[in-house]
Structures are given as structure tokens and as C-alpha cells.
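Anyone have C-alpha cells for tRNA (Uridine(54)-C5)-methyltransferase TrmA? Sequence:
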Amino acid sequence: MNCKHFGSCGSCGLYEIGYEEQLKQKQQWVSGLLEPFYQGDLEVFNSPSDHYRARAEFRIWHEGERCDYAMGNIEKNGAITVEECPKVIEAIEKRMWKLLEKINASTDVLKQRLFAVEFLATTTDECLITMLYHRRLDDVWSAEAKKLEAELNCKIMGRSRKQKVILSNEFVTETLDIEGQTFTYVQYESGFTQPNPAVNVKMIAWSIKQAKTVGYGDFLESYCGLGNFTLPLSHYFDRVLATEISKRSIHAALENCALNAIDNITFARLASEEMTEALNGVREFSRLKGIDLKSYNFSTVLVDPPRAGLDEGTIALISNIENIIYISCNPETLARDLATLTKTHDVIEAAMFDQFPHTEHVESGVFLKKRSV
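Reply: yep, here.
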């Protein structure tokens, strides 16, 4: 990827070396962190080097009567205006500059106190644009924004403090082909989604590969989100219990189950720590009413925690489950957690997923199997 803002925009910190060298350096880093626990080959899944990001947010920089997109600078002490951003997928790129043109050509209705624009798009060319304001939005704004929806062939929302204006709806619908099957996902504007669709498909396919080696029992998932991994992996287990703390994500997950005609998943709104307490019988939760936890026979668990990694209780809980699929957005906390998990399990497979080209961030995954006593 070539970008005129390399070296000044803080969004891409790795720009002086080519993409293949970036991958090599990340592979060496992750392999080094995992070396105490895994001596096999690290499977590396690359990304398109440009047009890979389906989610993006830009500040709006006001200079006189003109608005421009802006990003934090590489020194992290200010911002720069940007004239291109080749990392966003085509569904965003073909709309974002037309949007800016329309904003600048409009009266103050669209630009007054506009401070940011967020994009959420799909590989099927759907795009949801959220315009964020420091002022109350009225019917005049809605009328102008509705015209933009038609002109840009997209969905537009407006947000200001304690106000959300939905002109058509607040989600996009993504369709992914994974291991010969098609899965449909409703993705809401305020919910978490994987930012790199191409690498996301590879992450799910790798997880399916591990699930196929098990072939029995029930499946437990923590941090399930909108069902990104849950739906495809549900085909390889008898029953699934998936937990997530976000109400919006649970709502989307239930919708996605219905969209994909999957009926062996039960979703529960629990934090990871609460899931541990519930499964260990420490506490009862009204949110689990009607769910017989004791009836599950978990052969496999998948965890996909935030950068902080797993809490001690969750590690203790999953240490009793035979197979563990651990997806991590922070290889350092993954290595920390493996120091405990490998007391009972062996790492059978390990992989690196480059969700964020041109940055130091990288996702990784390990598959662990409990040692025979």
C-alpha cells in the first residue's frame, strides 16, 4: 500500500518497510512469545495490503468555511488533515470523498459543529455512515441527510449528546463465505465487529479446522459478540452456550442465529467473570433462567478476550475443558495466560492473523488439548 500520508499520519506506524517484511517481523515476535509453550511452525495468515478495513473513524477539521477529514499525527501530539486513506475497503472509499464534497457544498445544516464521521461497511457494498455533532439535530438536518443517503446509496445516522437519529436503519448486513458455507451477519453501528473481513474469514476457518478435530460434545464460548465465531462453529457440536456482556451484541447474535437458521445455540448476557461464577455454581443469575447449565457436556471452549487477556477465574474454569481455542488480540497477554494453561494443556496448533497491516498490532490463535492424566 502506498499512501501520501505515511510518516505523518499516526494510523499506520509501519511504513518504511514492505508488507512482506512487516509480516516477517510480526511472525518473529509472536513466535518468540510462544516459544516457551510451542515449538511447532506458526501458521501465518496475511491480509490484503490495501483496501482491507471495513470500519473507520475520521475527525472533522474545520478551517474557515471548509471541512476536511483528519487523523491523529504520528507524534501523537496533534492531528493532520488527510486527502486519501487507501486502507479502507472500496465500499467506504467510493463514498467518503463524495460525502466530504457534499458537506462542503452544503449550508451549515450538515457541517455546523460536525466533529467526526464513522464508517461501517461490508464486502457486499453496504455502508453505514454516522455523523457526530456537538449540537442538537433537527428535522432540517434529517431532510438534508436523507438526500445524502439517496445520492451516496448508503445509510446515514446522526448522533449528538443523548440523541440518535436513524434515517433508515442502524446496521449493515455482511455475507461471508466460510469453508463452503455462506453466513449472514447483521452488524450494528455501536457493536463490535472484526475490522478486516478477509482476515476474519481466515480466523474463522482456522478455528473450524481445530473444531473438526474434536467432533463431539458441547461448545462453550466467552466474548461471543454478534456470533462471529459462534455461528460457523455451531455446526461441529451438539449444543452451544455463548456468553457476552453487551446487550446490543446479544441482540445481534440472536438475529444472526435466526438469519442463518441455526437452532442449537443459547446466548446468555454474562461477563466472563459471571460465566465462571455461574458454571461453578457460585451464583445464580436471573439472566440464566430456563438454562440448565448442568446438562451441558463441554468438550471445547473458545475465548476471544480483550487486550487485557483472561482473568484468573476464567483460566481456572477453562483449564477443566479438554479443548481450548484461544483467539488473542494481544500476543503478550496470550503468552502470560499460556504460562498457566500449559500446566494442564499442550499447545497443538498456533497461528498469526494480520488484521492490522502497517501497524504493530497482530492477532494470534492457539489450540490447546488437555494432557492425559
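The two ends are 51 Å apart (CA to CA).
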